[in-house]
Amino acid sequence: MTIDQAYSYLFFVALIVFGILMAVTLIRCIIGPSINDRILSINMIGTMVVCSIAILSGLLDESWLLDVALVYVMISFLAVIILASVYIREGRRKAAASDKETAGKKEEESV
Amino acid sequence: MTAEWIRFWIIAVILILGLIAFILAVIGVNRFSFVMNRMHSAGVGDSLGLMIVIIAMIIFSGSVMTALKLALLVVFMWFTAPTATHFLSQIEFYTNKQLEDHVRMKKTLESGETAPAPEDAESRGREDGD
Q: Is the pLDDT of residue B104 over 70?
């Protein structure tokens, strides 16, 4: 076995393991009870994709794939931040509304 | 010839260590019962696993430019992963109504009460049991 074959076997095994791990994380994304679980799983799948792209650039000997990985990191971060800010705004609005309701009830009780 | 093989085995061991970190993170994400615990477990893969895999690829890559790009990936992930975790915990804080069943929170200053005594809080944490 030459050294190139050994490297390609090693990287293939690593890529297959990453594929299995991504599938298992996707299960958590599907069954996740809250929105938080889903965003978390997608973030983790993004990290694994970045690792896979880095390994793939070693396997194919193409260094421009790393530029793709850099852009992927930024875009997955952007997706998480935008989804999170949407849900935080929604949750704040609901919390403020429920606070007003409870305050009104207390005032009625005191009167 | 032997030096090449020694480098190969070093890379193989480091890469498999990174895969083990990712496997532990995925097991934690699927097995823990509360969202905050799952976030903690996902952080293992986000920072430690990515760093170890990228170190293996840095040793594999011959040129300096490729190594710098790979190091830049680690720097980006180390800035973005804690920020994303912070935002996710904010979602949990604002959307989960039963949050106090699972975590111990400091009282707000408006209520004018002090935090519960340590023994009291600890026994409460044990009862929850997850």
A: yes
Range B54-60 contact pairs with CB under 8 angstroms and sequence separation of 24 or more = B54/A51, B54/A54, B55/B14, B55/B18, B56/B11, B56/B14, B56/B15, B56/B18, B57/A54, B57/A55, B57/A57, B57/A58, B59/B7, B59/B10, B59/B11, B59/B14, B60/A7, B60/A58, B60/B11
Nearest CA in chain B to A6: B8
- Count of domains forming chain A: 1
**Whole-angstrom Cα distance, residue B109 to residue B130?**
28
CB contact under 8 A, B80 and A77: yes
Q: Domain range for residue A9?
A: 3-110
* Token representation of residue A15: 């890529």
**Cβ-based contacts of A9 with chain B (< 8 Å):** none
Write out pLDDT tens, residues A14-63. 999 999 999 999 998 998 788 888 999 999 999 999 999 999 999 998 88
Chain B residues 43-102 with a CB less than 8 Å from chain A: 45-46, 49-50, 53-54, 57, 60-61, 63, 65-66, 69-70, 72-73, 76-77, 80-81, 83-84, 87-88, 90-92, 94-96
Spell out which residues of chain A touch residue B50, defining contact as CB-CB under 8 Å: 47, 50-51
